[in-house]
Protein 1
Amino acid sequence: MKRLNLLFFALFLFLFSGLNAQNKEQARIWIDTLASPFMKGRGYAHKGDQIAADYLAGEMKKLGLNPFFKGKSFLQPFTHSVNVFEKEQELYIGNRKMKPGYEFILSPFSGNVQGNFKPVIYKDAEIENIKALLAKEKSFKKKAIVLWPSHAEMVKKANAAIAECLAKTEAVILINPTKLTWSVSDFLVNGKAVFEVGAKYIEDFSPNSKLKLTSRSEFQKTYVSNNVGGYIEGAIKDTFILFTAHYDHLGMMGSALFAGASDNASGTAMMLDLASYYSGQSKPKYSLLFLAFAGEEAGLKGSRYFVESQPDFLKKIRFVMNIDLMGGGSIGSTVVNGTVHPAEFDRMVAINEQYQLLGRVKARGKAANSDHYWFSEKGVPAFFMYAEGDVTAYHDVDDTRENLPLTRYNELFLLLRYFIDGF
């Protein structure tokens, strides 16, 4: 009898691991495609997000999902404003040309600035007294204000001083001793630019150093993006559970590619993987909508448009499960809105403990940090889950498919599936 139990347990582990390996293998294909140079970082330079939207619509069709939007389409177009850095950006300190994306980035609201500048350097104590020091300088014409903090807390003060500096000059350089982290802006400060330089790449920088700066952006007020959605009809047709993930990322800053493998090719692949699983099963209890949002990095634009354009549909939603950053997980996962919906969160914790999937499942309160937010604001119950551990790249050029381990992908997949199956 004992031998039979061991054989049964070994067979269970084999089937369990085989199922997971298959899911992980397909997820890797989706991630590698979404994070490839062909997708242009799924941002706004070279219309990378539109390339990704068409690809996702095709994948949903292959999986047998029904198109969700008007006209039997997988795409829901909407317009929003965004500042685009399609052309090459340049920064020379002395004779050294800094490498865009790796050694310097531009603040995403930067406009068009070009020319040679003389640096005016302010360090820690001077940064704290920046207003008075700026007032003493007669003119900043063709001068670039350089803020050079020595540690992370002083970086915060330097960032707070940037607006004061931009009122005096057209170019500011922040020498950052911490990580370079890029973003997307839906507004433009025309004729002004902020260059952020990694302190570890500075070899020689003094008030006598020559600076050559080129910032080139194009502000697009009515850029067209697309949400992508497909569904599986359930036994209860008019009640929906949503799996959501944003597929957009930062795109490109000139030649610098921000591929976004973790953020959020991984969550998008997880969503497609779940769609693949459920499309191969018998009819689910509730209808399942798989929704890939655009414009998350630009300010949750896609999810806001969806929510505001679908007031009647919101009444049909049983629950929203928003997923992001699924590439690691050795520490566990965090659930935003976990404290808002304690019964659902406790059930997720119980599932995790029962199947011993992740090291921990931690609750977090309400936060406007991803696409669940607009649903929550309309009273629709929603979770936002992200994995923790293993992945340190975030909003930088190192968030690549090669650097994505998918450590606990299988366990995250099962936790999400078992949780949704419990409704």
Note: The domain at 88-216 is CATH 3.50.30.30 (Glucose Oxidase; domain 1).
Protein 2
Amino acid sequence: MSGLRQGGYVIAGFMRHAGFWSGTASTWVDLNPAGSTDSTVFGVSGSQQAGVAAVGGRNQASLWSGTVASWVNLNPAAATSSIANDINGSQQVGYAIVGGATRASLWTGTAASWVDLTPAVGGWTSSAGVGTSGTQQVGYVRNGGVAHASLWSGTAASWIDLNPAGFSYSLAASVSGSQQVGYVTPVGGAGGARRASLWSGTATSWVDLNPVGSTESQAFDTNGSLQVGFAIVGGVRRASLWSGTADSWVDLGSFLPSGLTSSSAQGISTDGVNIYICGYGFNPVTGSNEALLWSRPVPAPGAAALLGLGGLAALRRRR
């Protein structure tokens, strides 16, 4: 999300349609381009959206500027398919399949602007970009069953390995200011051992955000001071908010409206007056996820810590 705009998709006729909202269900704008059989928005920045559209049987990294007619195909000439995972300012990040290999990718608005971020050192066979701050990019590099969370500053040569000692698998999902968030998996650990993670530019800066009692957690976004994602507690996936430590964890799932069970927080932003968190909750009656928006006022300077103020404002439910 960006400001009061949230990106994602709706399912219509068994097909996903990329689009965005501006805080209410009635503001939905359908961005699915002509000829696309499936599309999704993964990132929003100001008036632009980035994601993917399936055209001609291939995924094509995509950029929109608020209308279906504004669609730009970012798929580079050398790639068989591609996806844009995030956008911030003039940058879009994701990956492209080139010669059968997945390559972390950076664009600035056109297919011709494509930059391959895969580092030349380390023997990495694949990579992907997941998030951008507008100047820095995060994602991962991979070789077989080993993956390392990664940070770039616009070129393959700028690559920084964020994987902390003692972990065989890590991924960075978002970057803002000096913060990067994602998850790590311990050596020998299964998928259930994922731990929400926070970095500030180096592997040694790693902070474990996994709260006490959680069997698995992931962080998906940061605004530079707060982090959002989910933690599984008591066997239930619960949308989560942190402010830099595991002890700061706030269970956003406790604010779900009646009828929704598990949940996850996917994005966070602020307009200076309120903090907004978007995500989804599961409705067991319909068997579907429902897009959600949480909000609360920004604490006044010198007030008590954000996460000690007794919870968020009432959740607003969007289907």
Note: The chain has two domains: 1-73, 75-317.
Protein 3
Amino acid sequence: MKTQITNLTIVLAFTGLLMACNSGDVSQQENHSEEAGQENMVSLTRQQMNAINLKLGKIEKHNISTTVKSNGRTELLPQNKANVSTLVSGLVTNVFVIEGDFVKKGQLLAILEHPDIVNMQQKYLENVNNLEFLEQDYKRKKKLYEEKVGSGKDYQRALAAFNTAESTAIGLRAKLKMLGINIKSVEKGNITSTINIVSPIQGYVRSAKINIGSYVESNNDMFEIVDNSKIHADLLVYEKDIPKIKNGQEVHFNISNIPGRELKGTIFSVGKAYEDEAKAITVHAYIENNEGKIIPGMYVNAHIMVDSITTDVLPEEAIAAEGNKYFIFIKTEEDAHAQEDTHGQN
């Protein structure tokens, strides 16, 4: 049995649809330009069809998105990276992490020691003890003043002294708390000469700028911590494509250190100002399922899915290529004629 084959040129190929298996005869068509003016006809036998495992399916409707190409780099939001410093100067007595270590929020990174740490606690204790005396004096003079026995001026002086001491105590207590010193322990007379440096976020130690014996000035960076699980991409979108971009659009990413795998993400913020040199805006997109393999600063290629249309599609394996021409097989109504010809020959 023979089946007529007609050539048909295909411009676009679509992937992702499964072909349903059917028996029957097929034909192949190729679109020629008007100048060609004729169709080329070929034939396949049933044995040839079976030899190439030719199967039939249907052209189906499918949503296809048009895309905007973009590129950029991976980056972290400000709340997902932290520079760790100290509020007081001190000598580094211990370091507990190195670059690349994973740390939890509140984990001990290093210990600093300095006499000023002791002086601050002593001053707080002196103030607290004095505050108790001033409070008693203020209450006594207030009672005398209310009973018309004491002087109003003495009462006002006692009140002012108490308020000043109380304000100083509140300030010192806040400073000690910022340094991570246990206030109740200090009030019991337990004074420490060291403070603990802890991580403000969960993440990886990106850099450690100290070692044992280093003297650290207040507000100098000691560590940098980054949370790569919250990484995103900063993409440049050029002027002509800006009106097409909006929050919530899906993005497909390719990153050099994850070859052969396409990652997905979603736009969560569209910039409102031009990058002067590039004449483009920055678009921010989350990256899903990065599994910790992505670090800040990596180059990315991206396709932003901007429009969706419904059209006829075929799976990629349904398209045959020869040189720069593409063909599909189409079942025609000529099967019956082919069968009649075959029976006549027999």
Note: The first helix runs from residue 46 to 51.
Protein 4
Amino acid sequence: MKNIAVLGSSGSIGASTLDVVRRFPGSFQVVALAVNSDIDSLYKQIKEFKPQNVCVRDECKARLLAKKIPSSVKIYCGEIGLEELVKDKSIDQVVFAVSGAAALGPLISAIKSGKDIALANKEALVMAGQIIMRLALKHKVNILPIDSEQSAIWQALLGQDQASIRSIYLTASGGPFRNVSKRKLNSVTINNVLHHPRWKMGKKITVDSATLMNKGLEILEAMFLFNVEVNKIKVLIHPEALIHSMIEFVDGVVMAQLSATDMRIPIQYALAYPKRLANQLPRIDFYSLKQLHFAKPNYNKFPCLGLAYQAARQLGCLPAVLNAANEVSVEKFLKGSIKFMTIPKVVEKVMCKHRNLANPSLSDIMQADAWARQEAYNVVGRLG
């Protein structure tokens, strides 16, 4: 029985994780849950899974929840509370299903506490990947990716010599605007953007998928997770989203991981690793599968991808700046303050103004993050 904590349990990845637990009651037990502010969902989860500890980032909502649940359940609140929750000795593995830079502090806390990590959050690793991976090595912690693309790379690399990698192909569905002209992108609505053709995800990651920034973040994530140079990582548009990523080795052999577009599949693998558990999840029917399509990404139409490659080449604090500016831009887009194609403009302006610092400390990264957020708000104000 593996005891797990699910951070972001009310979101799509969190809900999928709990469904995996529900399907394997003899293998996994939920001992901790955390949400931002959705205490209605958390209350239902507490009744079903009976965790020992919960955390609500919104302190007002935490006080409301405390009145409804048994006193035996310990409640943490705020960002500091989340960092304390993951230290609990009963936890074997922490599932990071929260989005954004807010995951960085709890992630570092969990690693220092010796907890294995099932990671769905990209932003923390993008911001401080080198620091995080060094900490994981020091504390002998496994960081197991949940994202379908990173899980595919991880599985394809098992038993392989790292030096034999020639190229990593990160596949991307292309999002909702794969066949939309750049001119028409200037007038797309929030509803258009949030209608992803393949995956059901939270709003932030869905916007990132539409701009291809999500794939850009995955480039940086893969660099750190697998210790590979950026010039070996390529993005490949694959609208069917059945091949989740591929590795080409120096001898010309390509290893690809295929599965149905269901996040429960990579989640289950990360939770059960090194075992594979039989399930009744969707399968690929190869007899009805007629063809698969591949294409190069359009960097002119999706400039966020090029900006991510720039950050990956320069490193330092620039990935944190890229991420922070993007988070602010997406937030403003979802509020209707800026247009869709303004997102990469804001990110580019903030990156251009940033004075990069090589080999930054965690403090340097956090300062760069704070600066970039404020600068992004300033740029949005000027553009608006």
Note: The chain has 16 helices and eleven strands.
